[in-house]
Fold these 3 entries.
Entry 1:
Amino acid sequence: MKNKSFSLINIMGLTIGITVCMMIFLFIMNEFSVDDFHKDGAHIYRVMRGFQRDGKTNEVAYLSGPYAPALMNDFKGQVLKAVRVNPNDDLITVGNQSFHEKKVLNADSNFFTFFSFPLVKGNASTVLQEPGNVVLTETTAKKYFGSIDNAMGKTIMVEKDRPMKVAGIAKDVPSNSHLDFDLVTPLSNYKDRSWMTTWINNALYTYVLLDPHTTQAQIEKQLPAFMEKYMGGDMKKFGLHFTLSLTPLKDVYFDNVAFDGVKHGDKTVVYIFLSIAVLILLIACINFMNLSTIRAAERSKEVGLRKVLGALRNNLIWQFMGESILLTAISCILSVGLLLLIMPWYNQLLGYSLTVSWNTLPIYLFLIGIIIIVGFLAGSYPAFFLSAFSPVQALKGRLRLGKGGASFRQVLVVVQFSISVFLIIGTIIITKQMCYVRNKQLGYDKTQTLIVPIDNNDIYNNMNVFKTRLQDQSSIESVSLMSGEPGGFFDGYAFDVEGHNNEDWNARTEFADFEFVQTLGLKIIAGRNFSAQYPTDTTDAVLINKTAATKLGWTPDQAIGKWIQNKVRDDAKRRIIGVVEDFNFQSLKENIDALVIAPNEDRRVAVVKLKPGNIQANIDIVKREYTKAAAAYPFEYKFLDEQFGEMYKKDIRQQTILSVFASLAIFVACLGLFGLASFTATKRFKEIGVRKVLGSSVQNIVILLSKDLLKPVLIATCIALPAGYYAMNEWLQNFAYKTALSWWVFVLAALLTFGIALITVCLKAIKAAIANPVKSLRTE
């Protein structure tokens, strides 16, 4: 209370630092708790299928139906259980209401005994045994029937032709589960599908439960022989090489697998959060140490008197440690209140709501740990420094802190601002890269282009009529039906290629109609496009991109007329009729891959290019035609540029995180600098008065007070610049296409930091410089 400004600065800095730490702690607890509620989770594994591509093994989470029973049969006693899960979406009709549910799982009958998703109604062992049964979550049951009790035994219609009885109600799936569902139906309804009977197929997830005495390595050692036994013929026939591996359930969430349809986290984001929390808390602790140390001279007589009255050094150390812990405890209480206020914003930043409860033991242990650790860390140097005073010298008057203390304070300021400059550099570079990504010419036109999913039987059966009706509209420029839009799904296949006998050649594929090139605005650089004037194009022609031609050792012109055969999808060889200019159909984190564009039947999206004009009116036209083609389903769409932006959600989140926390870091550092400036101005109060009387200008006095305080900021900048360059250069390696590390970025970061620090110091320095010298020269 006697030193309000210093206490306020300390408490404010520690509050911010502890709040950030608590945010990170809750986030990390949530991330690493994913799937930990399953009873047998330690022995559950997801089976992954790998394939060789460009010398690397890529993995997919999808297998076909025969794998699970074969694993159970061939690994008796080692694989105790297996369950297959097929993610799906269905039209659900309840009375006169229809719902297009996107989170539907088709699962084996042992799904609820294999995993620990508790049922509030129904028997876990039998609830999925009958093909006509369905399990709803509590929320879904209430949405359909008003209450859980009303739902049991009722009938819902699936896809307009399959009545199913509600045989069970499951608790809502916790957010810390990689699997998510609103409905579960028996997989036995699909037993005759090709993906349930054919080995070479991608359709469903397969999980296995191993005997506790069986290790992952023991099973994986036997999997090559397993694959040779069941897939050897197909692999030889199609020139493919498949492998199997096991991923522990606890690792599925952080497993970086594309297009597997389950929830995934990112350890990079976790580590970034953790690093920033530690750095900001360190800055706050440095403030505490600095400000407590410079107050030491003010308390020298107190320390001397206590020593004369018999206080031992240990007594003084614990006294000052106690003060430090008290201030930390106050900051902790304020931090809890602040965190409660900002939790909605924090959940929005993360993209989901944290499931961690405040009433758990780890939370309390964390708070106690913060108080003790931060209290000791922040109070250690001041306590030992203050307790070392000689009582004789202390009682004679105020002590000088000496060059050693001043040097130590400067080192701490250097550390603070090194961290701040580093975070500012990171923020600028990530922002610059995201701007580069948004503005890079991708080789196709993504403006005013809609993506309409072909994700139900109605639109699939009527997609050609839907396309024709849209093409007849004057406001629609072009429409194309395809297997994947840019940024979407592009499967990989092995090909036989003319002139490359006995050589496995792999490429990405796009299956599309004749309007593909026109709709996306691609450029043909050799040959011609697909054309209705050549009816044989449907069965005999393909386009490739420039990269594919280059990888095959051809110029674009040399590629024309060569034959190429998809080993899985085509019985006949197709001729290359055209080469398109390269376009970024995948993320800019990846180099452009070889791409083969063929008119095979595989339509998953309709891409609609709108003419300039009233966008909403044009969307309404597309909606009207969609409703005619698939009246039972809601019209859903997104813009192509939005789809491309989806690929960089993680990086945009990192940009936001760094921006917020870099601002907090520089704010907390400047709090400390302001405290140092206040102390300097107070300590040199009479000197300033004498200088003013002798003719010094306000400008001269401001420079005098500022130069010593800004020197460590300058040193910090020199340290942080190379560190920032190295770290951000490493981060940019995640992108195949990246912005340059321009010199002006580092100059801007240095100027921003120095400018903010200068303003902070000058605010106090100017106040001291314009004060009436009579007040400072007046004797006590």
Entry 2:
Amino acid sequence: MSDLVGTARVRPTARTRRWAVGYLFVLPIALFFAVFVAFPFLRSFYLSLTEWSGFTSPRFIGLRNFQSLADDPVFWKALRTTIIYTAVTTILQTTLPMLLAVFINIGWRGGVVFRTLLFIPVIVSFVVTALLWQLIYDPNFGTLNQVLRAVGLDALAHPWLADPMTVVPAIMLVSLWQSLGFYMLIFLAGLQGIDPNLYEAARIDGAGARQEFLKITVPMLRTVTAVVVLLNLINGFNTFDVIYVMTGGGPNRASEVLGTYLYKLAFGTESGATPSFGYATAISMIVFALCVAAAVVQLRISRRARDVG
């Protein structure tokens, strides 16, 4: 009799079984996160606290790398360029795709062809894009200067990537060219979800196209806009490949961003210096912090706007 009572006591309830099944479903993604996200991050954070050339064992030095960043003029210049680049590209790559999506959504003639042409750069790799635009910007044989000379605007021909004043705007244009179609499709998908009756009711009340855009389209795309802004911010802070291929951070570090600077430090390409993985990893932690801060601020702004709306 006591054995039966003991068996009944240890028998799992239906609720316990449901919890167990739920944990089993969560276990694969939890393991994936732990192995490929949590552990690499913790490892990187530890390396940011060390002095390591990659050839010897890491030597723990505490916060000395971060203290060195405070006195590193190249770091501050790269940080300033990164923030400017991110801010400008985020504004351009949010407003222009939204406007294009609105024009295409209202039945703009040739919208399908135009949408396809805009999306083609999205499927081109970053390296190919950088090499292509490097040729376009070539001061002697580049397409851009050749066109300017052909139409009689020789005075505007310029070494676009060799001038510190024009190199960053030139790279911003490349980023806009490649990402415009992608963000436009995101906005176009959001426009498809807006109830057409809202626009009909606005027209009945005498609203014009501008009022419809500001009072209906923009508020209804609030969630989509938040996603696009967040993607632009993260991509801006992490930018590396296009800039590294096109300019390598030059001329005279005018286009140096955090991604290119930490790459040079990590692999010893900074004036033939010894690789500094620990110092470079400290910079990567700064990049990570910028991305997290951007995400938190954007989510709070979106939540506040949603609550107000």
Entry 3:
Amino acid sequence: MTSQGEDPGHFDASRPGRGDIAWSVLLNGVLVAAFVIGAIPIVAIAHGFIDLVLQSKIRSGADWAAYGFAFTGLFLGGVFFAYAIKYYLSTAMVLLTTLVGAAPRNGNGATKANGAGLNRINGNGNGYHIELGYHPFVSVHVAAYNEQRVIERLLTALSQLEYPEYEVVVVDDSTDESVEILERWRNRPRFKILHRNSRAGYKGGALREALKVMDPRTEYVVVFDADSVPFPDSIERLLPLFYRVSDGPASRRFEAAFGRNDLPSEPGRVKRRAEVAAVQSYQWHVLNKSESWLTEAVRAEYAGSYMIERPFQDAIGALKMIAGTAYMIRADVLREVGWGTSITEDWELTLKLYTRGYKVVYTPWAETPAECVSTFGRLARQRMRWAEGHTHNVRKWFLPIMRSPFVSPIEKLEFLYDASYYLQAALFVVGSVSWLVSEIVFNAHVPGWTAVLGWSLLFSNIFALPLMNLGGLILEEAPARDLQGVVGALVLSFALVPFQGWAAFKGLISKDEGPWFRTPKTGRVTDEVKHLRRLHLLRRWLKGRRTVGPRWVPPASPLVSPPRHAASQRRRWLGWVVVGMLVLMFGSLAVVSLRAPVVSAAGNPLYLHGTGTAPGCTASTVDQAVGTRVAVCEIQSVAGGVVNTWSFSNLPAQTVAAGVWTFTMYWTGGSGSTNDTVTIAAGVSATASCAVFVATVPAVGSTWTATYGSNGANTTSPFTVSTSASQLPQVIVAGGSLCIQVTLTHSTGGKPSMVYDGTAGVADTRVVPPSIVVPESLLGFAGLALIVPLFASRLVRRRR
């Protein structure tokens, strides 16, 4: 047996191993079986139609209607069944190979473990870096339009990237407060801020401008949308996917012998993967996932797509789409193909790359937290833009893709699937309704199709997407609360049908695409975010399980057989050893959590709200939603001061970082030489009430006040006042509250009133705190160690 120190020269990595051959046979067999199963409904429907014509059962208009519904339902159901088979196949293969540890290969015949020079950079097992001898320069590009609620949050996260050689280029088309926010970043190191006076070309047009001004040293470009909050190690997680270790003799023999990712003493050279143009990461929509049933549904939908469907596509070598944000692309390739101006510029760029022979790869290990769309209207508008731009580009690029010699057959097949991607839900709904009408109203059946077969097709179609979404959440080890989003995602898939269907049809027949409608962001953060913890399970699927050589086991003595009670004692002792190791592991997690990084979210405006009838409302809550009252609330100042308190209650554990607070006040009224004073204080409460709270803003010894009125310092409404000194952090415990207290004191002249809880730009009196810091802590998981003895004792009893 060869040990690590011996020469493994007798191994030949150029020859596929038995595991690789077995995997290839299994994969090809499963794909062929999927094609056969997917074709069965269509073949059966065609056979039924022939039988119906030969039997001459259609004798009246009612017969035409009855069988028309039956054939329409089964035909469209059969077409959707082709999508369902793909979802079932990807879900089953990803989950099964994840659990049993198979070692798949990609569609180009190369193993996914293509980085003998990839080494782990942190303790969670998800991140890698590659030693190139230098750091390729990376230019981060952001195209923004009226993103005042989230843009500073993104810029703060980008300023904290750990990669040494990078710049940030922001191209802004905004007409809102984003312009002022970005001005504060204009002279910061690494940042280039450009402002356009038009939206020509929309996002693609803005990214063209970024391409013009980026550093000439740039080797890679990363694109983020404004609602993203990338982790500090995002660049280092994307970069290694562009490289592989050369097939030098030493590296081949070493890797074949030991199945290891670390380099031997004579490593092969690191080479760029010439075919890889871009690496797409996981758009992880989790920042506000607990906001409503709709955000939970959107979060579940993305989990299925990014944890099941995309890994499956990557493993079999199918066409993979750039998804608009959180991806890295080679700068030389981007200069070559250029940015288009489609309303789905990411899909357009994908097709440009594939027609030129380039590929896109996917990694979930660079997951980028982002927002879920928070209202159905915004979601429908977003999906309509996607559907219209998608089908428009399918029509435009259909022949170039299908004729291209650089596009493999399986990539062309995936493109055909994508061609009607936004129509598949419509196929399901129309097909299901048609079949139900034929079954329940007309009781008409296609020859060869029974009611049982029809119901089977219906339910096999309806469960495909929910199971894939559920599988994605399982791989993420999402909390149990997130699982309810699977049902919401199913509801959304039906509710969006008329919107996506019309937009897809419009994109297919229209000469030009429609305008770009921005999806508004709220900037809300409802959940803690941290790197996915146990992607090592998925890593078995994407990169292949490490092979382990034969282990030497000492032979059992044929002369001595241990007594039965001694064996039982050993099992019990072994069980407690396992328990002790698990307790140690969880304890280590708790210790590590104390030094875990944090994710910062920019302070979003908190708007004051009232209860009761305007104008004499009662001070109530403060949150991130703009008021909607037409008749706004008013609080009139009085001599001696009137005090009102607003609360933001039942918050998750978080910290409002040290920094400057600002208060923007709308006021009205007052006559003569009016001179009034507003005093603001902020603090935290450990309960859901602000009846008693500790006011720590402003800092001790400073004031946070301003005078206003015709004779005051601020003579027009609104005006903004900031804390006079940088404040200390505000720590909010789980279930606690952030409290805002406003005191209005009248001095001279007529008494003015503070107005609030009105629509944006009318009376949206608000306070803006500094960044909110959500800790990434694994401490809570230490409690799981308490239940380990229960499982261990149960296992011991079962073995007895």
